[in-house]
From TrEMBL:
Role this protein plays: Nitronate monooxygenase that uses molecular oxygen to catalyze the oxidative denitrification of alkyl nitronates. Acts on propionate 3-nitronate (P3N), the presumed physiological substrate. Probably functions in the detoxification of P3N, a metabolic poison produced by plants and fungi as a defense mechanism.
SUPFAM superfamilies to which the protein is assigned, alphabetical: Inosine monophosphate dehydrogenase (IMPDH) (SSF51412)
Record-given protein name: Probable nitronate monooxygenase
Signal peptide segment: none
UniProt keyword annotations, A-Z: Dioxygenase, Flavoprotein, FMN, Oxidoreductase
GO MF, any single term: dioxygenase activity
Species this protein is from: Formimonas warabiya
Any Pfam family: NMO
Length: 322
């Protein structure tokens, strides 16, 4: 199968793959640039960063790649507007947002001549996003990692969204290899978003302990927890998750007010930051439903090479785990 380019407004990605924006500081400039250099869309996760950090990461990515670089920022964070405007003022190629809808962000995108891409979980939400001004929608099914907006499979939702909107539709959740991508195009997708596969890459900013958890993961290790954001979240079972599931009091002693609304059952940013740093026993390690299929930590270039081989009907090239 020959992959078509992904066109989102004025943005053209030669390879229709968006790298998921994984917070906190998993998806930084090195990973985003590596994906952009292969022809995909590299994404910096702005959630959990200060505006100064985000600016530094965008500029670092630009110094490493002339490809398409975007940001992903969760609507639920208090600094949402500041982070989006920081990226727009710096000339980011596109902005991706989920966990809620801010009507103003579409206006900001139009003013900056920058596409705004919304993450949705139903045809109804996709249609609303298109009417508000979204240049494309990322349709995330139950197979996805991180925060979940549905209990339905992406394979069910994408065809419905394709019928409901006229903008590009990107499938997300459970996309690991070339065969998954080919299937997503059969559903009617114009592209795919891959997060879990790129979290387990050499260029990912995740700790080695985080990546090793992915390699060790079994199907029964993947669980869904209640996030303070107000949505369920999918991650890997560990000491922290067991404590959470046993209803232990993990509420933070101090609160920075990072979320607009917070369930306060634990500090989501602290838990995700611990995962990135390798403090695994006190971490929330987000992952997709298909994480058990990942057996190697590979460079981004090798991941793309394998995908192209799989789409051509060839076996993935042999590589050594790093």
């Amino acid at each position: 199968m020959q992959l078509p380019a992904l066109i989102i407004d004025k943005i053209v990605a030669k390879i229709p793959i968006i790298q998921g924006g994984m917070a906190v500081r998993i998806s930084t400039s090195r990973l985003a640039a590596a994906v952009a250099n292969e022809g995909g869309i590299g994404v910096i996760a702005a959630t959990g960063m200060t505006p100064g950090e985000l600016l530094k990461e965008i500029r670092a990515a630009r110094s490493l790649s002339s490809g398409v670089i975007g940001i992903n920022v969760m609507f639920a964070v208090r600094d949402f507007a500041l982070l989006v405007k920081t990226a727009l003022n710096e000339g980011i190629d596109l902005v991706i947002s989920g966990a809620g809808v801010a009507r103003d962000m579409y206006k900001w995108g139009i003013e900056a001549n920058t596409p705004i891409v919304s993450m949705v979980s139903s045809a109804k939400l996709a249609s609303i996003a298109e009417k508000l001004g979204a240049a494309a929608v990322i349709v995330e099914g139950k197979e996805a990692g991180g925060h979940l907006g549905t209990d339905r499979s992406v394979r069910e939702i994408v065809p419905e969204v394709r019928q409901a909107v006229n903008i590009p539709v990107i499938a997300a959740g459970g996309i690991i290899d070339g065969k998954d991508i080919a299937e997503a195009f059969r559903w009617g997708a114009n592209g795919v978003q891959m997060a879990t596969r790129f979290a387990a890459s050499v260029e990912s900013n995740a700790s080695q302990a985080f990546k090793q958890m992915y390699l060790n993961a079994k199907h029964e290790d993947v669980v869904v927890i209640k996030s303070p954001v107000g949505l369920p979240g999918r991650g890997l079972r560990n000491v922290f998750v067991d404590r959470l599931c046993n209803n232990e009091d993990l509420s933070p002693e101090a609160c920075d007010g990072c979320l607009k609304k917070c369930g306060r059952n634990f500090c989501i940013l602290d838990a995700l930051a611990n995962a990135q740093r390798g403090n695994i026993d006190n971490a929330l390690v987000f992952c997709g439903e298909q994480v058990e299929r990942i057996k190697e930590i590979l460079p981004v270039k090798k991941i793309f090479e394998n995908i192209k081989a799989e789409l051509a009907g060839l076996p993935a090239k042999e590589a050594t785990t790093i």
